[in-house]
Amino acid sequence: MCFQVIISIIGLLLFGKLLEPLWGTKELSKFVFIVNFSTSMCVFVTAIAVYYVTQQESYLYTPLSGFYGVLSGLLVGIKQLMPEMELNLFVLKIKGKWIPSLIALISVVVSFFMKDLVSYLPVILFGIYMSWIYLRYFQKRLETGLKGDPSEEFSFSSFFPAILRPVLDPIASIFHRLLCGRSDRADRGQTLETSSLPGSDSTEANRRRERGQRALEQRLAEKLAAVKSTESTSLDASDKV
Prior knowledge:
Distance between the termini: 47 Å
Strand order of the largest sheet: 1-2
Helix content: 55-70%
């Protein structure tokens, strides 16, 4: 248990350090709460459903760690904001956009060989999915004033190899229309009232993404400048002493 707590703290500090300058402390805290709560609820409902199907009470008493869902959700945030950033994993260099998919794949594979880790699999998978749902459709983007991230680079099929996307895109579009079609049309109507040309939706989405990326870079630069200013002020004060 102590080892798991240490991993959770280290992961939160590392991933939070990357995302907090871009999201802000308030949004990061909101993200952690929403993902942790929604992941826990999904795992709870899944455990109840599996119990009724199998009639095995062990599913009701399996210890679960909800914070691993938050950690995997923070990786989805890195995929969204820093997709081309490369992280060194031992001898491999992995781009940020593939890290959530890699973690999900490793978790599934490991669960077949280490039965003690099976209980963490639904937490990790639901953490990735619920964080994507929130970032894709509900997070309010300060740089655009709109909700969600409609870019193709952050679609559901972007978590999978390109060979599977022709199969996944039609399925994902069905759930998109069922769950968020109405709100998506409302937001699109506000921003694209005068645009009716073919392909204008994707063009506008790319423009929004570019504007958002520039705003995020500017915000990060302002944060770094503030930190440097504070450090120089502290050094001047120490020199005077």
